[in-house]
Model the fold of this input.
Amino acid sequence: GNTVKNNTQAGTGTFTGIDAGLGTNVNVYDNNVFNNTKTSPGTSSSTMFCIRASTGIVSSHDNAIYTNNINTTGGASAGTIYGHYNAGSPPSETYYSNLIYDLNVTGTSSSTSSVVYGMYSNPISSTVKNWSLNDIHDLNVTTTGGGSAHGIYTVTGITINVFRNKVCNLSAGGAAGATNGIYISSGTTVNVYNNLVGNLYKPAVNAANAVNGINIAGGTTCNVYYNTVYLNATSTGALFSSNAVYASTSTTVTLRNNILVNTSTPTGAGITAAYRRSTTLLTSYGSASNNNFF
Done:
C-alpha cells in the first residue's frame, strides 16, 4: 500500500491524501494516511479528503486513516474532514476493515458548521453499499464555533448494508450541530445490524436530538437488528435531548433484538430516550419489531 504522511498545507482550498479516481474497478487497500495538517485562515472554507473514490465498482479495505487535522485560525469559515469519501456514481461500494481515528477540526473559527465524518457516501440511487468491520473513533470538532461529528454517514442507494462496525468517542463542541454514530439520510432498503456505537458527546449544545447513536433521518425501509448502543452524555446548554435510536416516521422502521441504553442527562425540556420517533405516527413502525432491550 501507499503512505501519505506528515504533509502540511496552508491557506484555503482542499487537501486530498489519496484520490482513487474512477475506473471499471476501483480498489483501495492497505494504505496509510496519517499526520497531515491543513491550516485555514478562516476567510473561506477548508476541506480535507483523507481517501476519496468516485465512479466504478469501489472496494476499499484495510486502510488506516488517523491523526489528520484542520486547524482554523480565526474567521467565520468552516473546516470539514472526511476520513473516507465518495460522491461519485459507483454501481457498488464495499468498505470493510478500515481503521479511522483521531480526525480533528480545531482552532478559533467562529463558524458553527465545521464537520468531521469518519465515512461519507453520497452516490446514486441505484448504488449497492456494503460497509462492515470498520473501526471509527475519536473524531472531534473543538473550534470556537463548534459543529458536528458523524461516524458513518450514508446518503441514497438502493440496498445499503451497514454491519459489524464499531463507532465510538465522537465529540463536537458548540451550541449548534449534532453528533451521530450512524446517520441514515436516505436509501431504498437500509439494513443496520450488529454494530457497536457509544460514547458520543455534544457538551455545549442547545438543541433537541443533538446526540444520536443511530439516526434514521430518511429512507424508504430501514431494518435495525442486533445493534448495541450506549450513551451517557451531558450538555451545559439550556436544552439537550439524546437518543440511542432516532427515527423519522416517514421511514418504515423494523427494530429487533437491539440493546439500547441511554443514561444521558437532559436539560430544560429535553428528553433522554432509548428509541424516539419524530412524530406520534405508528403505522411506519414495522409490525415485526420485537425483542429489544431498552
